[in-house]
Amino acid sequence: MTTQDSLLVQRSRDGDPRAFGELVRRHQDGVFRFVLRMTGSRDEAMDLTQDTFIKAWQALPRWEPQAQFRTWLFQIARNAALDLLRRREALRFVPLEDGAGFIAPQPGPDEQFAQRQRLGLLDAALRQLPPEQREVLLLREIEQLSYAQIAAVLQVQEGTVKSRIARARAALLDRFERATGERDDV
Amino acid sequence: MSESCPRTIEISAYLDDELGVAERTQLQAHLAGCERCGVQLARLGALRAEFRALPEERLGFDLSAVIGHRLAAAPKPRAAPPRWRWRQFMPIGLGAGAALSLGLVMGTGLMAGSGGVAAPRVAALAVFDPAAPGSLCAGSGCRARPAAVGGVAR
Predict the structure, then answer these.
(1) Which is the most buried residue in A34, A68, A71, B43, by most CB within 10 A?
(2) Candidates A140, A158, A174, partner chain B, best to mutate (most B CBs within 10 A)
(3) What was the ipTM of the complex prediction?
């Protein structure tokens, strides 16, 4: 955990709301983009992000000093996202049309359009992965957490993280390359 | 047990710089001579580049300003109640055990001089005799007056 984070957490635990506010500013975007790509809904991601910090504030007395604040925060966010997905009963597949992480390509130079379309296909392929594969990829590729940090978030062994990331990448590659035509279905 | 080629798990961890030194050296040597694994490394590397190109999502506003009133309205964080651990009861338990053991020993000692057969249960109850265990009146030379005995069998 960064020194600044640890100081802010300590002051927050002592009841300083301004210190907690600073923690919120430092971590809000990371939490938001993670739950956004987990749930595919911008409105719900905003609610979940707020809920995550409220829960973190309430749970501060139970936070263990040896735990990293960021990984602890992602644990809370991840649980909230999975709860939402369970409630939706849409754990496996989210149709492309329901996605909110996908930015509709705007008319413009051909190259820009092609790139945006390609990124949209990646986003869609990512959302089609099972949650347990999607979350490890998001934590690794987007949030750039180490295997040890991801293991702490998911409460699994590092070996499990290692194999799960590899399988998730293989699955995503398969979907993405088929969607872009870089791989035949045969 | 090593994977068959392409060694996706190893290559994936290699890409993340999560292999140990020996593993990394071994895989690098393998990659130099394995086309399948080389292609897999290139594919995973390209996928990483695609991720880097994804737009960075942001909230777009200061959440701490929004969350402030919700924090004020939320139940105040309470410290978790202290968890009693069994070790905290050890001194009490040891003390109770020691007292009981001492009573049993002393009671047994009192009964040993009585010449009579005393049921273990009665011997244990000797600690409750009017004459306290260890007192000057304890032992075969001391007979409690009938009025003081109160029906305690010996």
Answers:
(1) A34
(2) A140
(3) 0.84
